[in-house]
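Support request, priority: normal
Reporter: lab tech (M.K.)
Component: structure prediction queue

Hi team, I submitted a job for Cu(I)-responsive transcriptional regulator from Bordetella genomosp. 13 yesterday, and the status page still shows it as pending. I've pasted the exact input below so you can check whether something in the sequence is tripping the parser. The sequence length should be 136 residues. Please let me know if I need to resubmit or if it's stuck on your end.
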Amino acid sequence: MNIGQASQASGISAKMIRYYESIGLIGPAQRSNAGYRVYSDNDVHTLRFVRRARGLGFSVEQMHELLALWRDRSRASGDVKRVALRHVEELERKAAELQQMADTLKHLARHCHGDKRPDCPIIDELSGSAVTAHHA
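Reply from support: The job had stalled in the queue. We restarted it manually and it finished. Here are the results:
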């Protein structure tokens, strides 16, 4: 199948398929006599794996590792679990950071009059003019 068909079958844009190929995440596509990329069902299966891994927020480096583990039939499931749990820790850290940002913005918004006055703690905080950092 051509790249458009592989894109439709995998749910990954043609541009991203080319990118994943350029960085070695997926192997180079076979080429037709005319030089067009040709993808097999196995290639699409790999692309779907990548799409699902990306959907869970895995980085390109982590996807490289997961693909290697997926292809290694003698892999230890503990190796896969370690990759997943390291990623969970990173997701939880990012979630805590996002929550802190949301709490700070909520606090600043509560103290902003939201009327025609020019003074605003949100702008003060962003400009570094706030006297102290406030947290909810």
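The radius of gyration is 23 Å. The longest helix spans residues 77-110. Let us know if anything else looks off. Ticket resolved.
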